[in-house]
């Protein structure tokens, strides 16, 4: 089919006229100068060949989005559809990831509007948190004449008044939010942009505190001193969702020996004579990747069922561990290690790999023994822990309950308290000893601990390892685990109902549910407190004397009442007495306010509360509040999870019915976009164009949106200049296709009542039915890249390369009111309506332009907000503004279905393909210049097909003139005579011959099958060129063909009347 474009008639090269007057291509016949241009009906339209300038589109986008959103809420008859917006962070400029997210959401919403549903979409922003606070600190530092704070550890900045920080942080967030909002409006995102939600708004904060209060009432909130992820760079606790893991982190690992208490108990547990241990030190050997935690060691953990051996390194014959260490005197030391680790340790430490050891015991025999801490000579116990394995290290685990959750839980059961001699900055405190105080644990402090171990004779081996390590996702700096007093949400009791609730949630991709369930199953508690000023305060009072927290549903209710009246800033400036409930004001105790704020994931995770306003008051439906949540794949451990957990904890149900995740935007080489790599593509560059317009042309808002639609967004999305150029080319093709159709509709003459009479037109409606079915299925599946592909294929393979080429002659050259021309115009009318509707969720401006111009071309009045081709303001009282979004969604029309016609065309198209190849060969061999220079001979072999051809003079139910139109040649000759066929071949009359094509199709239900073969030959057209239509079907030179003579005669008759 694609060959048709090269073989099309001269009409395909004629321009489409613009403006009110008709403009026709001047053409004279070959021998006579007579001009027939005034008799041709060439396309005319004021539909622009190029879109508006991006600046004009931006204004139109904002206007169009607000008005259509209001119109559909008031007028659409269908049920409510809620896509709940996950709040992006109000920090920095929008990037292509934001475009992928917000435009994908908008495509979904606009499709739902077209399907008649009332869409509720409230854009939101996450406004609290560290990045915004750091910007505020930097501004305050500069304003005070100090260097800007580079991190949260800046001493001067940390001492600032919290209210000053909050004031500047709020202004910073709101300034960024407004800038982002303007750009989102320019992208045409459908919403009421005067109604957005912000996590810093008081009504939002009050609802969030209400969720906290309910969780307190249910016993799900508690305070505990235990290890949490701590960011020294941000000086605050972090949740798991705020971490990112760096795969190539380098750490100093160390093998350290701890001297066991050598006594009769040790000998008995090891099953050896005490005399065997006489004057021989016994060491428990551990391996750690965090030597800085050794000052906080409080136990050594073993597994009760692992076998451990007592080995004598002096028997190995190696150096390494047998080399005397500082403090070694007398007979060589003995070591306790897991038996399964001997082989790996032999090469590194010189332990005897093949030796059975002096004795072998189960780990349970070691539990309860004691050892001496090598740095402070504290006597500490050996304990049992189920997490110990013999897969790595030594099989004995250094245990610091202040620096690891598993360590903490193992020690908590034994009454061993957490101990963490590390401050907020990640530096050792005085408790760690004078040699370590003030040193950063991840750098100089780590080195200092290794030096101390070496001096004590405890360090046997050290090496650098590369491994995955958690980093603060904001500051991009490594974190530590550190025991601090924090507020936690107990997830144990809500894990099972949360996981079960997800079983009823649909997902795209389907693996999202399993992934989210895995994250939920892996969490027992959630650290919700942060040591920052910019956030929602945790509404808790503390007894000044005891430090005990006063936190009940009643006290929180009182505090919420005060904050609701005065704002959350009052927590930092109001009198503490105002926040003490009356029942506690005279109890003889003094209280202070807490200074912790809530985790921003708790902030955003309670955004579902605003959706409760959309549920009817009497509605007790347990169904989710939102039809859809859609965010990036990183939100499985972020917003998806926090929303699910807070909703299950307070309402018992998931807040979403369906979960959709998209990937990240990457450059052409699959790298994450970053300023440091210089590979960032700004959305504004896509819209407005770059410095090099050939490499980065201006695609406009529709181009940006079409790029989003073209991606497989459920995976990571690569983007390059070339990919965007391709999308721009496709967009131009869509525009030109619509322009051709609009140019061939006569104003006010085409309506639904006109009849479609020709087979090619009826086949076009079958193709339109298929296209609409495919596009609808793709939209329903949220597979917008498939919608894009269906549009491109329908445009290029069917409309441009097939239907338009076939029907141009009748549109241009037949009489204006001819039934065949009218038949095609009716089809163009249906095509335009379907085409604009399928484009509408993707290319909002192009679709509205098509609709606006189409409405001027058809006889029926438009039932449908403001055309995108204008920017004027429309009175808000208009309830039915003219818009494609107010038109009903075009579904396949059953009246257009014709199984017999479908089978016939399925049989015809392979024959046409073979004919096009033969015509192309004739053209390449210079026998013809264009397809209209040729006739086609169809040889139909014996059988039902040949009989039908002989009896009715038809092939595929078409007479030769119709076949000539479909095959875009001047004439068609049908023959069933093999002798005639052979004679044409032998005499060289055939310029090119196609292959034999088998034909087999049912005539009609219960009427049998037509079978046979068809072979096509190209021959030089035998008639003369018509000076008007250029087909070679005239009786003589400069003589009009019969069709054109009739048309011109009719026009002349009208002119003289």
From TrEMBL:
It comes from the Eukaryota. InterPro entries: aa-tRNA-synth_I_CS, aa-tRNA-synth_Ia, Anticodon_Ile_BEm, Ile-tRNA-ligase, Ile-tRNA-ligase_type1, Ile-tRNA_ligase, M/V/L/I-tRNA-synth_anticd-bd, Rossmann-like_a/b/a_fold. Residues 853-876 are annotated as: Disordered. Residues 761-936 form the Methionyl/Valyl/Leucyl/Isoleucyl-tRNA synthetase anticodon-binding domain. CDD domains: Anticodon_Ia_Ile_BEm. GO terms for biological process: isoleucyl-tRNA aminoacylation; mitochondrial translation. GO terms for molecular function: aminoacyl-tRNA deacylase activity; ATP binding; isoleucine-tRNA ligase activity; tRNA binding. It is an enzyme of class 6 (ligase). Signal peptide: none annotated. It is found in: Cytoplasm; Mitochondrion. It catalyses: tRNA(Ile) + L-isoleucine + ATP = L-isoleucyl-tRNA(Ile) + AMP + diphosphate. Its main location: cytoplasm. Belongs to the class-I aminoacyl-tRNA synthetase family. PANTHER family: ISOLEUCINE--TRNA LIGASE, MITOCHONDRIAL, SOLEUCYL-TRNA SYNTHETASE. This is Isoleucine--tRNA ligase, mitochondrial. The lineage of its organism: Eukaryota, Fungi, Fungi incertae sedis, Zoopagomycota, Kickxellomycotina. The gene is ISM1_2.
């Amino acid at each position: 089919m694609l060959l048709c474009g090269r073989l099309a008639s001269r009409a395909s090269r004629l321009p489409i006229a613009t403006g009110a007057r008709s403009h026709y291509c001047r053409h004279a016949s070959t021998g006579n100068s007579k001009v027939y241009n005034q008799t041709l009906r060439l396309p005319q339209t004021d539909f622009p060949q190029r879109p508006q300038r991006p600046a004009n589109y931006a204004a139109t986008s904002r206007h169009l989005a607000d008005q259509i959103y209001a119109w559909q809420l008031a007028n659409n008859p269908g049920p409510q559809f809620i896509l709940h917006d996950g709040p992006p962070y109000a920090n920095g400029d929008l990037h292509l990831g934001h475009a992928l997210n917000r435009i994908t959401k908008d495509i979904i919403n606009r499709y739902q509007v077209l399907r008649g549903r009332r869409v509720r979409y409230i854009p939101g922003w996450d406004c609290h948190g560290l990045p915004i606070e750091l910007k505020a600190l930097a501004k305050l530092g500069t304003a005070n004449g100090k260097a800007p704070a580079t991190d949260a550890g800046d001493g001067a900045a940390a001492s600032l008044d919290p209210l000053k920080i909050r004031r500047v942080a709020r202004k910073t967030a709101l300034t960024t939010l407004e800038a982002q909002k303007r750009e989102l409006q320019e992208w045409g995102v459908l919403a009421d942009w005067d109604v957005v939600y912000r996590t810093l708004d008081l009504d939002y904060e009050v609802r969030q505190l209400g969720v906290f209060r309910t969780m307190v009432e249910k016993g799900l909130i508690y305070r505990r001193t235990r290890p949490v992820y701590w960011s020294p760079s941000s000086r605050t606790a972090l949740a798991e969702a705020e971490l990112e893991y760096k795969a190539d982190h380098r750490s100093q690992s160390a093998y350290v020996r701890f001297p066991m208490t050598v006594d009769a108990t040790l000998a008995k547990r090891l099953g050896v004579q005490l005399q065997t241990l006489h004057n021989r030190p016994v060491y428990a050997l551990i391996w750690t990747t965090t030597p800085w935690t050794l000052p906080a060691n409080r136990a050594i953990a073993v597994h009760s069922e692992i076998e451990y051996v007592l080995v004598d390194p002096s028997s190995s014959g190696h150096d390494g561990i047998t080399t005397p260490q500082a403090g070694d005197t007398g007979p060589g030391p003995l070591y306790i290690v897991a038996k399964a680790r001997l082989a790996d340790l032999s090469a590194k430490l010189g332990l005897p790999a093949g030796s059975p050891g002096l004795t072998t015991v189960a780990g349970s025999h070691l539990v309860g023994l004691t050892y001496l801490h090598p740095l402070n000579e504290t006597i500490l116990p050996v304990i049992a822990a189920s997490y110990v394995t013999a897969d790595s290290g030594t099989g004995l685990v250094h245990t610091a309950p202040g620096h690891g959750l598993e360590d903490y839980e193992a020690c908590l059961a034994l009454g061993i308290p957490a101990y963490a001699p590390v401050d907020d900055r990640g530096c050792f405190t005085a408790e760690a000893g004078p040699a370590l105080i003030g040193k950063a644990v991840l750098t100089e402090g780590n080195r200092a601990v290794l030096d101390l171990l070496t001096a004590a004779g405890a360090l046997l081996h050290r090496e650098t390892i590369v491994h995955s390590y958690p980093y603060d996702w904001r500051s991009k700096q490594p974190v530590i685990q550190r025991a601090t007093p924090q507020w936690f949400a107990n997830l144990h009791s809500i894990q099972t109902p949360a996981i079960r609730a997800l079983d009823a949630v649909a997902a795209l991709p389907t693996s999202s549910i399993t992934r989210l369930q895995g994250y939920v199953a892996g969490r027992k508690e959630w650290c919700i407190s942060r040591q920052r000023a910019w956030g929602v305060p945790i509404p808790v009072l503390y007894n000044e004397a005891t430090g005990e927290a006063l936190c009940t549903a009643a006290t929180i209710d009182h505090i919420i009442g005060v904050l609701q009246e005065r704002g959350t800033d009052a927590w930092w400036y109001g009198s503490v007495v105002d926040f003490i409930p009356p029942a506690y004001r005279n109890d003889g105790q003094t209280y202070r306010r807490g200074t912790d704020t809530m985790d921003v994931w708790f902030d955003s995770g309670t955004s579902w509360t605003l959706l409760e306003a959309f549920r009817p008051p009497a509605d007790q439906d347990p169904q989710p509040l939102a039809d859809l949540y859609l965010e990036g794949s990183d939100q499985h451990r972020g917003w998806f999870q926090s929303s699910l957990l807070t909703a299950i904890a307070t309402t018992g149900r998931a807040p979403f019915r369906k979960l959709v995740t998209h990937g990240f935007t990457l450059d052409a080489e699959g790298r994450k976009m970053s300023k440091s790599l210089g590979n960032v593509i700004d959305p504004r560059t896509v819209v407005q164009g770059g410095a090099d317009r050939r490499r980065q042309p201006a695609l406009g808002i529709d181009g940006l949106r079409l790029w989003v639609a073209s991606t497989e967004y459920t995976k990571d999305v690569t983007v390059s200049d070339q990919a965007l150029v391709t999308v721009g080319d496709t967009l131009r093709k869509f525009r030109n296709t619509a322009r051709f159709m609009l140019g061939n509709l006569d104003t006010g003459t085409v309506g639904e009542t006109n009849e479609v009479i020709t087979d090619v037109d009826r086949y076009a409606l079958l193709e339109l039915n298929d296209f609409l079915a495919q596009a609808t299925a793709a939209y329903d599946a949220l597979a917008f890249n498939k919608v894009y592909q269906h549009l491109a294929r329908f445009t290029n393979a069917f409309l441009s390369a097939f239907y338009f080429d076939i029907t141009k002659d009748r549109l241009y050259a037949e009489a204006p009111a001819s039934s065949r021309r009218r038949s095609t115009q009716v089809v163009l009318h249906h095509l335009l309506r379907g085409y604009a509707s399928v484009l509408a969720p993707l290319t909002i401006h192009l679709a509205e332009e098509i609709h606006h111009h189409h409405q001027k071309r058809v006889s029926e009045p438009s039932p449908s907000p403001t055309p995108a081709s204008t920017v004027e303001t429309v009175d808000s009282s208009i309830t039915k503004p003219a818009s494609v979004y107010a038109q009903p969604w075009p579904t396949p029309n059953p009246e257009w279905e014709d199984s017999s016609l479908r089978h016939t065309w399925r049989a015809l198209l392979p024959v046409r393909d073979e004919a096009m190849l033969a015509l192309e060969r004739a053209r390449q061999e210079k026998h013809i210049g264009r397809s209209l220079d040729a006739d086609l001979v169809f040889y139909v072999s014996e059988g039902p097909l040949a009989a039908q051809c002989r009896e009715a003079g038809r092939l595929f139910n078409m007479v030769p003139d119709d076949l000539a139109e479909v095959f875009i040649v001047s004439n068609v000759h049908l023959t069933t005579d093999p002798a005639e066929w052979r004679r044409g071949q032998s005499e060289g009359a055939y310029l090119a011959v196609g292959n034999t094509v088998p034909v087999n199709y049912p005539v009609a239900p219960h009427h049998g099958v037509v079978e046979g073969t068809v072979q096509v030959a190209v021959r030089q057209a035998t008639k003369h060129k018509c000076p008007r239509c250029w087909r070679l079907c005239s009786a003589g030179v400069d003589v009009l063909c019969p069709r054109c003579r009739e048309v011109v005669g009719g026009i002349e008759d009208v002119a003289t009347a």
